[in-house]
Amino acid sequence: MDAKMVKVLPILLTMYATWFTIGIYAIYLQLYAYYIVGVSNVIIGFLTTFYFLMNSVSSISGGIIVDKYGWVRGVLITSLLLLSISDFITPIYKDGFYLILVRMIQGFSTGAIIPLSNLIGSKILGAGEGIGTVSMFGSMGFATSGLIGGYIVSTLGYDGSFILCGFITLIPLVLLLLIDRGAYSDIRGSRIELRELVKFPLSIWVIYIAYALRFMAAGGIWSFFSLYLYSLGADEFWVGIIHSINTITQIMLFRSVGRYSEGRGVRVFEGGLLLTSIVFIGYYFSLNFMHVLPLQVLLAVSWVLLYLGANVYIIENTTESQRATGLGALQMFNALSWIIGSSVNGYISEWTGSYKTYILASVFITLIGLFIVEGYIRRAARNE
């Protein structure tokens, strides 16, 4: 095993384990909370709201800590430990507000893990291929949770499934503890301050705004997606399969699109916004869960374009001392937007009794983001 693989393997497994856990909770926590614990749609919305509230705090603070002090290994170890603990304690007490506390811990841990894993991957393997490879392993983790999640839940129950996530998360944690302390020492701190964010190019802020609008739309949908699929006639097996179609398609695309995105970040990002709006239109007109199946392939393409376009563009248009903070800020805007979307849809779905009202609104929210980016590109072209 060459030196690059030794350094990147713990990061790949970190993303796999993290996204496996994210997948199990994203797919099945809604069902567990609604049918087993007995909470309302409003509380289910809050599970996502408070998850991403803490996610936004840790994503930007983790990036700043790494850019200032270079403690990337320590931040990852701490985050994985917290994630594992949260998995183990989930089944202890069946109460909606207790689940909110668990989700806050999970949000805090994953908020740092994902952008820092992207940073390390880009440092070791290059911007496009690094993020593409790291993201591919994350998608493999999420795909696994969807493909076998239904079987795991039917075999171990919800409680056993959450505990299993805790053990899987321990694997990369142990590898990071065993790896040489200097493995990631080339990611050095530069004493960056939070106010450096305002010095980022306007083009990056345009990406942040459009990204935030897309996730304001998507966050409200994904927070109730399993329940939405149930309303269309799906069971636990099909809920897992539908999620997996998305992530399996991502696995096939991430590395190649990652390489293609280098030097084309904005246009790739725009493609993701356009396809996202088409997917949401399809969700709105779906009459049963089988109609959603082909849309999940298109959703995967849109997500790969959106995610890689934004991350690669930020890496290519920030200085080395700004990158962890820049990527952390992207995750922060993602998280803050999920907070708004999940909270609003929690009340809307409770009030209207339908999950489609917010889906329709999400089409227009996403298109606003697309128009903002395109308007900026055309204005910049005129000024050249």
Describe the protein's architecture and organization.
- 84% of the residues lie in helices and 0% in strands.
- The chain has a single domain (3-180, 196-383), classed as Growth Hormone, Chain: A (Up-down Bundle).
- It starts with a helix and ends with a helix.
- The radius of gyration is 20 Å and the shape is globular.
- The chain has helices spanning 3-37, 41-69, 72-89, 96-125, 127-178, 202-222, 225-231, 236-261, 265-285, 292-316, 323-352, 356-383.
- It contains twelve helices and no strands.
- The chain is mainly alpha-helical.
CATH architecture annotation: Up-down Bundle
Roughly what percent helix?
A: over 70%
Global structural class: mainly alpha
**Count of DSSP H/I helices:** 12
CATH topology: Growth Hormone, Chain: A
Provide a compact summary of the structure:
This protein has 384 residues and is mainly alpha-helical.
Question: What brief labels describe this structure?
Answer:
384 residues, mainly alpha, Growth Hormone, Chain: A
Write the layout of secondary structure elements.
Elements: H1 3-37, H2 41-69, H3 72-89, H4 96-125, H5 127-178, H6 202-222, H7 225-231, H8 236-261, H9 265-285, H10 292-316, H11 323-352, H12 356-383
Helix pairs in contact: 1-4, 1-5, 2-4, 2-11, 3-4, 3-5, 4-5, 4-11, 5-8, 5-10, 6-10, 6-11, 6-12, 8-10, 9-10, 9-12, 10-11
